[in-house]
Design a protein that fits this description.
Pfam families: DUF3435 (PF11917). InterPro entries: DUF3435. By secondary structure, the protein is mainly alpha-helical. It is 49% helix and 6% strand.
């Protein structure tokens, strides 16, 4: 039955409608135009602009003897509705200030690169127009871009340099995974499995929407497992709850590449699957005749529990998603342990290699869908390594292509040197402690009586020591590689260097499951039930206190004297 006008009005009011209640907001245009990451960058560049303006007003006040406005008042003034855009000369002076107050990561002069500053200029013009409502002058914007790319580069203020793009292929990935399983610094054995899983999924942490399906093997001998991982945090996705992209896959015969096994042991360790409390329950599961698949269900009480979680330094499970910063740090550490020097890892390196391989078998649409990058211009600019993929001479001569050289220069192999050190020599660390800036901070800490000041100075000292150690280690590793390669040249490659075995993990004496699993990960052996059982033990058992095999407590009591472990 059709609703009457009165019923329609009553229904609207019952759900909270009030005429004109949102008039002020509804009069605004282009709300939510930018995603959270873009808004954050806009805030950063506008803060720098307000700081520049405030500094100028402060200098003018000193010259005139007037009172300088505070920072908050300055911000309200320069970013008020319809505030005038700075003149061309003012804009250029602001960006000179921005350049000299910033640090570059890839330039020799320590300033930002030219393309980085052009991007910041674009952010500023968009952000200023968005906040104030004042339209930017496109001709002035173009002049600023030209000035940065041509004038400032010629003057040596900005460098036209870009971060090198490389591909991270299966050889490097396997070495990194092997390093994960021999790393002594992990806070919890589950962290090994998690980092291994993340690298195999080519994704960041936080995804909880995973489906696992059991199916019969085509050969008829047992079952296999499919999985689908939903990438909730696709770039600029403003609706991660409902707009997700799924990447499917299936188990693999080699344990090192078996994503399904890694997922399953983590799920079982969390008791997250309905009806399954152990691996034995899983292996006991059959598929009914007439059914092609068996679908697993997550328990309701674990739907908000992230699979990939963070850990405290003492190994305590934080029950919170692993942060991207921690994963990047672990990724860097694993790459160094895998003997790669002078290169920083990134997920984009894996995506570039993946995109290149997909291009050989799938259409552009399928590739774009799989790597979540629909714009072919962006794929060409951001997901292609800085080296041709073509064997030009073979193409010219009509011969079969050999891409060995292309793969070498596109990949990370040129950064690999077996035996590369991952720690500083004691003499270098001793020299760092004798640096003047370190000793000044230590002296200030020892002489101050203010507890708050001492705490802040101690934090500053730790940050300085970490930075100095990181820089010194990077320099030492580069020098070591140069000397090692020079030595190979002088000995003509006829003398084998003495190497310490980096694959020996002293924890295997206490955790035999780790020793067996590490051996399989390094050797690339095929997956077995026993291997999955070891993985499950590593994911579920508490290794806070370690015992030699055969010396573990029995029901909380020492197996030799029968005294409760709590009383020892």
């Amino acid at each position: 039955m059709r609703q009457t006008p009165g019923e329609i009005i009553a229904a609207a009011k019952a759900k909270g409608y009030k005429r004109g209640a949102h008039q002020e907001r509804d009069n605004q245009t282009k709300l939510e135009r930018y995603g959270p990451n873009t808004v954050a960058m806009h805030g950063t560049v506008l803060d720098r602009y307000v700081t520049w303006h405030w500094d100028r007003l402060h200098d003018e006040a000193i010259k005139s003897g007037a009172t300088a406005p505070d920072f908050g008042t300055t911000r309200e003034h320069v970013l008020r509705p319809h505030a005038p855009m700075p003149t061309l000369a003012e804009t250029k002076d602001f960006f000179r200030f921005y350049i000299d107050s910033s640090n570059g990561k890839i330039t020799k002069n320590g300033r930002p690169s030219v393309e980085s500053m052009v991007a910041r200029a674009e952010d500023f013009f968009r952000a200023f127009s968005f906040v104030t409502g004042t339209e930017a002058d496109k001709e002035q914007n173009s002049e600023v871009y030209y000035w940065m790319r041509n004038v400032l580069t010629k003057d040596g203020i900005l460098e036209d340099i870009k971060k090198q793009k490389h591909n991270l292929g299966p050889v490097v990935l396997d070495r990194v995974i092997q390093a994960i399983w021999t790393d002594l610094s992990v806070p919890n054995e589950r962290a090994r499995i998690q980092n291994h899983l993340l690298l195999m999924l080519y994704a960041a942490s936080g995804g909880r929407d995973i489906e696992i399906i059991q199916a019969r093997r085509p050969t008829g001998d047992g079952y296999r497992y499919f999985w689908r991982f939903d990438q909730r945090f696709v770039k600029n996705n403003r609706n991660p709850e409902n707009s997700k992209f799924g990447t499917p896959g299936q188990d693999h015969p080699v344990l090192r590449h078996n994503v399904a096994a890694l997922l399953m042991v983590l799920a079982l360790a969390d008791r997250a699957l309905f009806g399954y409390e152990s691996l034995e329950d899983l292996w006991d599961q059959d598929i009914l005749s007439g059914d092609a698949f068996h679908v697993f269900r997550w328990k309701e009480d674990v739907l908000d529990l992230p699979i990939i979680r963070g850990f405290a330094r003492d190994g305590t499970d934080l029950k919170k998603p692993l942060t991207s910063a921690v994963f990047r740090k672990d990724f860097q550490s694993s790459l160094e342990l895998a003997n790669y020097v002078g290169v920083a890892p990134s997920i984009h390196q894996i995506r570039r290699f993946l995109g290149k391989q997909i291009d050989k078998q799938y259409t552009e649409v399928e590739r774009s869908q799989h790597i979540n990058q629909s714009d072919p211009r962006i794929f060409g600019a951001s997901y292609v390594a800085d080296c041709s993929s073509v064997d030009g001479l073979s193409a010219f001569l009509g011969e079969k292509a050999d891409h060995t050289a292309n793969d070498y220069f596109q990949g990370l192999e040129k950064f690999h040197e077996a035996g590369a050190p991952t720690t500083l020599p004691a003499r270098v660390e001793k020299d760092l402690r004798k640096r003047e800036d370190v000793m000044i901070l230590e002296q200030r800490i020892s002489t101050t009586d203010d507890a708050a000041v001492k705490t802040n100075l101690t934090k500053s000292l730790r940050r300085l020591q970490r930075r100095l150690k990181t820089e010194a280690l990077a320099e030492y590793r580069q020098l070591w590689v140069r000397e090692r390669r020079d030595w190979k040249t002088l000995t003509r490659g006829k003398v084998e260097p003495s190497r310490s075995d980096n694959n020996v993990n002293c924890l295997v004496a206490f955790i035999p499951e780790l020793g067996r699993t590490t051996k399989m990960m390094v050797s690339g052996e095929e997956c077995t039930k026993e291997a999955i059982q070891d993985l499950f033990t590593l994911a579920s058992k508490d290794f806070t206190i370690l015992y030699y095999p055969g010396e573990e407590p029995i029901q909380g009591q020492c197996r030799f004297c029968n005294i409760s472990m709590k009383n020892l």
